[in-house]
Amino acid sequence: MLQLVALLLIVAEKGLVSQHALQPVAEGVASYYTVSSSSRLTASGDALHDGLYTCAMREGEFGGYYLIVPDNGRAVVCRLNDRGPYVKGRVIDLSEAAMRQLDATEQGLLGVKVYRIGLGDVLDFLPDGRDAAERRPPLQAPLS
């Protein structure tokens, strides 16, 4: 989370932040999926890992970063790497680690707002001599 705060400060300093409030790209119910409940390969070609902060949405650019804020006030940033969910009323599927971070109900469902934050674009902008892929924030859940 500290890395996210640092990146957002860089974005503000470089003038890449709009004066308009972030608008959700989706609002509704979030569910989660695991390696055991779905294919081991995502629509983007990535392997599905329960311990990474990733998500599936019907629309959006693979590799884009999304801020997911449930009604309980917690939040997590996930990278879009799959398509779904295909259940009526659901707007996003989260990896097991991301859902655990959000403290979901026993049924594994949460009311959420989803915001596109575009960290991929920000990270590509940073001039530190490394390839953009090397600058991506880690998406692995913290060890408990």
Protein topology:
Blueprint: H1 2-13, E1 26-33, E2 54-56, E3 65-70, E4 76-82, E5 90-95, H2 96-102, E6 110-116, H3 119-125
Parallel strand pairs: 1-5, 2-4
Antiparallel strand pairs: 1-6, 2-5, 3-4, 3-6
Q: Can you characterise this structure?
A:
This protein has 144 residues and is α/β, with parallel strands linked by helices. The protein contains 3 helices and 6 strands; from the N terminus they run H-E-E-E-E-E-H-E-H. It has a single domain, classed as Barwin-like endoglucanases. The protein has helices at residues 2-13, 96-102, 119-125; strands spanning 26-33, 54-56, 65-70, 76-82, 90-95, 110-116. A 6-stranded mixed beta barrel has the order 1-5-2-4-3-6. The longest helix is centred in the first third of the chain and has 12 residues, at 2-13. The protein is globular. The two termini are 15 Å apart.
In short:
With 144 residues, the chain is an alpha/beta fold. Helix content is 18%, strand content 26%. A 6-stranded mixed beta barrel has the order 1-5-2-4-3-6.
Average of pLDDT: 76
SSE arrangement, N to C: HEEEEEHEH
Q: State the distance separating the first and last CA atoms.
A: 15 Å
Q: Outline the biggest β-sheet.
A: 6 strands, mixed, barrel
Q: Assign an overall shape.
A: globular
CATH superfamily (homologous) name: RlpA-like domain
Low-pLDDT segments, ≥5 res: 124-135
Query: Which fold name corresponds to the CATH topology?
Result: Barwin-like endoglucanases
Question: Share of helix among residues?
Answer: 10-25%
Percentage of residues in DSSP E strands: 25-35%
CATH class descriptor: Mainly Beta
User: Could you give the order of strands across the largest sheet?
Assistant: 1-5-2-4-3-6
